[in-house]
Task: structure prediction
Amino acid sequence: MKSEISDNDTYIDRNSRWLLPLLASFMLLSAPALIEIVGNESPIPVWVTSLFAAIGFGASGVFAMFTETFSAHVVRWLAEILAIAVLVGLFWKLFSAAA
Result:
């Protein structure tokens, strides 16, 4: 279902449903590296930030499915390609290890 887009809507207004979780995921992924650059050891394990970033990426993809903009279509297309590449890589690893 397409929603009405007025002339006053900005890019962020139209795409904030999927952009905000995506931005939060990028921030979570970069946080441990930024903390190490400052010189402190990260108090949060990397796997925790990676887990929450993966959840954020998933939420971003789900919300992109319900957003009818060109950017959301591009993100969905890239997510499909990435999912297929990951599945091919997993199957390749599974069957090449068995041989």
User: Anything to note?
Assistant: The CA atoms of residues 41 and 68 lie 42 Å apart.
